[in-house]
What we know:
This protein is mostly helical. It has one domain (7-377). The protein is built from 18 helices and no strands. α14 (267-275) runs antiparallel to α16 (293-320). The radius of gyration is 21 Å and the shape is globular. The termini are far apart. Mean pLDDT is 84; it is low at 379-390.
Amino acid sequence: MFAAIGHALMMSFAMFWEILWALILGFSLSAVVQAVVSKEEMSRLLPDDSPRTIAIASGLGAASSSCSYAAVALARSMFRKGANFTAAIAFQFASTNLVVELGILLAVLMGWQFTLAEFTGGPLMIVILVLLFKIFITPEIVEKARRQADKGLQGHMEGHAGMDMSLREGTIWQRMTSSKGRTAISHFFMMDWASTWLDIGGGLLIAGALAAWVPQSFWQAFFLHGHPFLAKLWGPVIGPLVAILSFVCSVGNVPLAAVLWNGGISFGGVIAFLFADLIILPILNIYRKYYGLKISLLLLALFYASMSLAALAVEYVFGLLRLIPEQRHVQIAEAAIRLNYTTILNIVFLVLAILLVIRFLRTGGPEMVKMMNAASVGKHDHGTHHHGHE
């Protein structure tokens, strides 16, 4: 038993070492964007569900680059402050599925084809979701959702979603390089790590355990690997279900996606699995608190349908273009540190991370995180105040 556990832990460490530099790079770029893009006017920019507004919502979501919990909390906050419900949900999907760190991790661990599929299927999923909302989300449903949202029931990562430390003066370069800008970047960097480390760690542990313990024959049978046509249909259906039950969201899904791909899930199934970080069980419970049980179940059905349909479309389009990788064995590095390009990149970006952590510690960062956590666990919604908490 101890040998099996050790093997799983070594697999988890191998995947962690392989993606460490990419995680640091992704969170650093995300922190820079958040430091120069203000959330203050987001609600004003999303008054309806027109194509232009949905495009703006998607762009703002991609720029905000939130963890799944923070994205859900921020979408509700925007909805309560006057944003259109459909636009707020589009923002929520973009802020977890169209973000730079996810694309980098996919390219590093699985290949550029998966990154391209994510950024092709993500907008398509949002378009499908908007169309489904026009059919099934009536004004009466929106009003019920707003009344429930205005009760202010707490979900998770409320403080992270509410804080806005972005700068507004000067050019983008001046904001990035100023003393306040460097401080804001360090704070956003640490906030992103604080909000996602459990998901990343959980995803690596689950992926390591599955890679070490579950035989390939099981995965191949489960994903209908011996029946190519059925597998293409089955993958986008079962992918989100696996995500729901895995409890892992955000970038923590990427190592597990690699294991599923090695196991035989279809290309579209991988994409559907990655899309489904916003319907894992803990987040479904947050929807229940935010919008009510009936509406949360309706959202689950519409989200699931849009994810599966978009992933199925990606499967067939990429198949026609011959962009689906033929190699099914994602190479996971051995659980040992060797002098190669991965180790060199890890060292370089660890130095960057250390510099950001030092500035975070020297500029009141720990106190800010305490306030963020206090907002997340608070029992009442105190409205907006000088820290930007919801």
